[in-house]
Amino acid sequence: QVQLVESGGGSVQSGGSLTLACAVSNYSPHIPCMGWFRQAPGREREGVAIISSDGRILYSDSVKGRFTISQDNARKTLYLQMNSLKPEDTAMYYCAADSPGSPASLLLRAGRLPLEPDFNYWGQGTQVTVSS
């Protein structure tokens, strides 16, 4: 079973930067999509950035132009470079991966950001706190 472990969270002032990493264990070359989600207290988990195995990328409107998702060539580490952080970016950030046959890759091709139910594997999360 695919296992995901996030790291890199922390506290930063508004305008600062952080880079999150997600280490993938028991990697399957058939994982169609991986991505980053976040969840603030009292709010639903929302997609931030998704990347497919063929390199398609989609960002949420709230982070477009500020965040960059990437993965190493072996797809064993997923990254999220976060620049120009704002207090509203404060949340628990989760790494996620889907399974073959899930709708995530189809949604990505259609230009739609996949949702939480479209992913099967989750990390434990890493906290990002941005102070004003």
User: Structural class from helices and strands?
Assistant: mainly beta
Number of helices: 1
End-to-end span in angstroms?
A: 40 Å
Percentage of helical residues?
A: under 10%
Query: Uncertain segments of ≥5 residues (pLDDT<50)?
Result: none
The averaged pLDDT comes out at 94
Measured by DSSP, the beta-strand proportion falls in: over 45%
Total strand count, please?
11
Q: What's the SSE pattern?
A: EEEEEEEEEHEE
Q: So what's the overall shape?
A: globular
Summarize the main sheet: 7 strands, mixed
| Estimated radius of gyration | 14 Å
Quick structural gist:
The protein is built from 1 helix and 11 strands. It has 132 residues and is mainly beta.
